[in-house]
Amino acid sequence: MSLIELQHINYRYPLTSDLTIKDLSLKVEPGEVLGVIGSNGSGKTTVCNIMRGFIPAFYKGELEGKVIFEDKPLDTSNLGRLAQKIGYAFQNPFTQITGVKYTVYDEIGYGLENLSVPREEANEKVEQVIKLLNLEKIRNQNPYDLSGGQKQMVALASVIVLDPELIILDEPTSQLDPSSTLAVYNIVKNLKKQGKTIIIVDHKVDLLAQVCDEIAVIQDGQLVVKGETHHVFSDEKVVAAGGQIPEVSAFYLKKYPKSKQVPVTVDEAYEMLKEAKA
Ligand SMILES: Nc1ncnc2c1ncn2[C@@H]1O[C@H](COP(=O)(O)OP(=O)(O)OP(=O)(O)O)[C@@H](O)[C@H]1O
């Protein structure tokens, strides 16, 4: 059974003439980490919004097709409650800051407060996440006074603290420096070990390839290809659709252009080149 499934989704934003999403079907299995790539404007964020229920609950427009979550049509009647099941870190962390809390600590705890989690339990969870994301230094700061990167980390913390079944991260490292970017990817690796189902939209394919079981490529609102990471990055449709492939995969494909499976890490490349020569 899939955790979430999109079935033949068509979607048009209000006041637009063309479909943004076109007959898109996609399944995500429990415990899977799915990377979503594609050029700017291809529809990645829109797909995330449909999975999180913001479309049609918040953005109107015309939506056709079905979203099945945990074997039932996605219930978008209470988006606050749905946050407990589906966590979503927005591409723009400014959107995520609630504006009603004056410290990072309270901001992270806001979702738990809304769900009436007992205070002691909530405090414990917030402390754990602050430690995990290394936010001790900014815990008493006003969320609005933070840098873009710090806001992004707080937004991520606000999602993780709710411990949702499905975590959707829309370009979670777009504002982060290289070391914070790596820290976020390490956190994703840990969440994966805990069995979480995660969808990550990112242009940083080298990092994405290291954590994702599968990659989906979207072009012009359509799903071009979805499959196991090492296979997808050997598929010429990815580059033709405006998607990038990891540097190490590109290097291997230059040497072995007909490969149906490519390495996505330097270690894998080393092993595969060794085998190819043997
Ligand atoms: N609220 C909206 N109303 C009308 N059109 C929209 C709206 N939001 C997005 N679009 C359009 O839908 C298309 C897909 O946008 P979307 O943000 O989903 O793409 P994306 O792949 O996430 O892009 P990026 O990589 O730049 O974040 C774009 O053409 C965009 O202009």
TrEMBL record:
Keyword Iron-sulfur: no
Domain ABC transporter residue range list: 4-245
SUPFAM superfamilies the UniProt entry points to: P-loop containing nucleoside triphosphate hydrolases
Annotated source species: Lactobacillus melliventris
Keyword Manganese among UniProt keywords: no
Subcellular location: Cell membrane
Keyword annotations: ATP-binding, Cell membrane, Membrane, Nucleotide-binding, Translocase, Transport
Family per record: Belongs to the ABC transporter superfamily.
InterPro entries for this protein: AAA+_ATPase, ABC_transporter-like_ATP-bd, ABC_transporter-like_CS, ABC_transpr_CbiO/EcfA_su, ECF_ABC_transporter_ATP-bd, P-loop_NTPase
Topology within the bilayer: Peripheral membrane protein
Molecular function GO labels: ATP binding
Superkingdom field: Bacteria
Protein name: ABC transporter ATP-binding protein
